[in-house]
Amino acid sequence: MAYPGSLGLGELLDRIFTTYRRNFLQLIAVAAIPYAALAPLLLLFVVPSIRTILAAGDTGQPPPGGFGGFLVGFFSAIAIMIFAVGISQVASMTASWELFVNGKFRIRDVYARVLKRTLALIAAGFLFGVIFFAGYLIVVVPGIIAALAMSLTALALVVENKGPVEAVRRSFDLTKGFRGRIFISFVICYAASMALIYALMIPLILGSVALAKPGPEPLPTWFWAVFIFVEMFALIVPAPLNAIALAVVYHDARRCKEGFDIQQLLDALPAVTPAAAPVQS
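Structure (tokenized):
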């Protein structure tokens, strides 16, 4: 059920894609920064491990250091990737919020604001994971509902400087009456994201089949570099969509429930100084 006075689904989607189109380069730059740090790590550590495993499978010999080293490197890379994706999303949400409130943002200021709250974000992410998986293990639907209810946690942390537990509670409160639209907007943004990823990655995968040669190194080094670049590109370009969606809902929820837009107008008014009392003779 829609919250009274909130944006309709059409208005919500229009605001998401209009904001994305008008601020495309800036939002892509915000989303890309963590990935730019991630790509060299993948090239230096993950790709060599994969090539070692492929070579071992071709020769029938165990890889140097065994599969344990590969697994450590692989799961370390996954952890770093999750952190990079999380920071990218939170920074994109913060930038989108600044656009709605101030009409502009500076990338440096956005990341300074987000990184200042890194530990709180990690703690909130842990709470999010525990609540989500607890609901998911019981039945799938409660897990999805929990994820929707906690979807504004990061914005409450960064924008309002809430603590992790308080931010989760704040998100539960703000998303009441908005969870259906969060779910639909997420599905639409996710579909757009996956369409781009498949459009770019399927030709690359088919190309790897055509390029593969028998031997310890079936694919050339340049292919791995191109693969990582294309994968990062496919992840970065649609990344701001969901972040914008959450920022729009966050702004709309605060507007409907707390009169945030009225408070913005009041804050924009010039300060009134008391008039001086007339001097009596």
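Residues 30 and 108 are 9 Å apart (CA to CA). Residues 265-269 have pLDDT under 50 and may be disordered.
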